[in-house]
Amino acid sequence: MKVWRINTRTQKLVIDDMPTSWERLGGRGLIARILLDEVNPLCDPLGPENKLIFAPGLLVGHRLSSCDRISIGGKSPLTGGVKEANAGGRTGLQITHLGSSTIILEDQPEDLGLNVIYLSPSECKFEDASHLAGKGVYETSALLVEEYGTNVAIALIGPAGEMKLKAAGIQNLDQDRVPSRIAARGGLGAVMGSKRIKALVIDSSEGDPPTILDLDGFRKAQKAYNKALLDHPQTKVYADYGTAAMARMCHIFGALPTRNFSDGNFEGLEEISAETMRDQLLERGGESNTTHACMAGCAIRCSNVYADGKGKGIVSPLEYETIGLMGSNLEINNLEDIARLNWEANDLGLDSIELGAALAVAADGSKMEFGNTSQALDLINEIRAGSPDGMIIGNGVVSAGKAYQIERVPAVKGQAMSAYDPRAIKGTGITYATSPQGADHTSGLTIRAKIDHLNPNIQADVSRKAQINAAGYDTLGVCAFAGFGFGATPETIPALLNARYGWEVPGDILQKLGRETLILERKFNLGAGFGKDDDRIPEWMTREKLPPHNAVFNVPDEDLDKVFDWVDKDDK
Amino acid sequence: MKVEVHLHATLRLENEESGGQIITVDLPEGSSIKNLLEQLAIDIDPVHMLFVLNGRTSGLDQILKHGDVLNLMTAVSGG
After folding, report:
1. Of B47, B50, B59, B41, nearest in space to B9 by CA
2. DSSP letter, residue B57
3. I need a labelling partner for B49 at 20 to 30 A (CA). Which of A100, A232, A318, B22 fits?
4. Looking at the 3D structure of chain B, how many domains does it have?
């Protein structure tokens, strides 16, 4: 198992053996371990001490359905703490086929040039990318595919990353070479921009998949897992409706962010629902696609291609979080408008959650009218132009709140909440409050739990369990939706790991990895200066009532503090 | 008694092509959500479903009353 270290100042690659303490980690867990071992938690996230880590999860590399995700991490310029963001697409798979377990971009150049890093199993070269400076993600990726061929994987940034905006993410090509698989959250695109890297191009065509020590054992576990995944009714929901099916569900619970988190119900719900989207796409045909795989071999196929009335594709995918944050949260009740906003966010290389949240705060501050798509587009164009308003919004929701003097800022640890209002889904609120990642839709959602989401006193255990599982899956490189298959066949997780690596891991390895990851992340954040006060939902949400349930966030502080009390115990 | 039932995403009545209907169901007094599911003959294991009665999470044995609004969905998450 090898670590590929690339120094962005000297432009040299050094390949080392994995330290023993890193070997049984991948993805999110490995990122936390590396940050803790090698990055000063008090460093400037955009300075030379920070590292940008690409870490495929432990099960990545074999086209196992929904298990080839790439985790990207570093110290977050948005939160100031630990950050992992993950994405589908090709990047994870191809890194493993290079023969690398993780790629670490270190240091930063003194000059302001821009580079592309090309990696193959036998080569690492830096190439001048000044011709790509300022170019959008779509144009850049098309030029890079033209130059390097159709088989490469690419992780790249847009103008937002080059401008080091804190809402900038890192995009990855999907299996159709569309660059929309974004490791969105926490400003990692700005870290890549600070190292003056426009794109990482990975060509593993001469590489090999990682060795599986017990192929029969692996195939047997794979078969059981695949069957469970395909048999699960949720898989069909994702295939037919995608994550957008969440819009109605969240509305029903009174938790759909509407007009900057001032309402939990949206009068335009039907127009932005998955049911409407499906009807539109089936009717429009052309490039429309209701079901699409972001990774080769995925059996769930939750992705889609959203096309206009003439069947011309606008964006792929159009997902729930974007529909929530750039739709109802901006009072925009038209999927086509949301798709166009989503395209702009993608092209700039911005997290659509952070951007949607920041635009809604800007609307509260009278910089645009709610429901006005063209004004939202104008503000996004301000980002492209690098104007002061553009910088304010492109640096995220907290930046927008400060500049426009708005108290109603939906964020924890500096990061915008995803599309579940924590006053109505209180377990998810606990996750937002206490996750080392900040308010994050990948850190442990609780909406699927069969509990009363409005009862503040029964949520802490649910959130803790969800957070541990999410951290475990993100360490394995497993898509959250594959959890339906693994949930029905939990024995396949240790079986796959044991077959691949020759280990003898325990039956609860998923939770063990999750707990280990969270312990490491909490430790890094402690070093970065985080404390109990940072594990809180913004105060205004404890006062301002959310219709229709008139709910406030009233989970006791003691419950928030007990979510991770076992970490401190484990640590002693 | 009459209960308004909202069906979401893949949940649909037999012989219907599109999901997401709203229907009114006539039930005997004292019927539970379980009774309603039997009457509708929905072909999904209730274990994978969420029942939201008048905006709150509910259970299979919950007794319904006239005018209730019940949302039936298979639970998804994320995006």
Report:
1. B50
2. E
3. A318
4. 1
Residue B79 inside a domain? The answer is no
Whole-angstrom distance, CA of residue A186 vs CA of residue A204: 28
Interchain pair B78, A233: CB under 8 A: no
- Residue B63 placed within a domain: yes
pLDDT at B74: 82
* Residue labelled with tokens 């990122």: A31
A469: which chain B residues are within 8 Å (Cβ-Cβ)?
none
Q: And the tokens for A432?
A: 């937002």
Rounded mean pLDDT of A515-537?
Answer: 97
pTM above 0.90, yes or no: yes
Pairing status of strand B2-7 against strand B49-53: unpaired
Residue of B60, B62, B76 to mutate for A, most A C-beta atoms under 10 A:
B76
**Does residue B26 belong to any structural domain of this protein?**
yes
CATH number of B28's domain = 3.10.20.30
Percent of chain A with pLDDT over 70: 99
Nearest to A514 by CA among A421, A411, A437: A437
Inside any domain, residue B34: yes
In this predicted model, what pLDDT tens digit does every residue of B23-58 receive, in sequence order?
Answer: 899 999 999 999 999 888 887 888 889 999 998 999
Residue of A nearest to B54 (CA): A252
Chain B nearest-CA residue for A455: B56
Residues B60, B33: contact at Cβ < 8 Å? yes
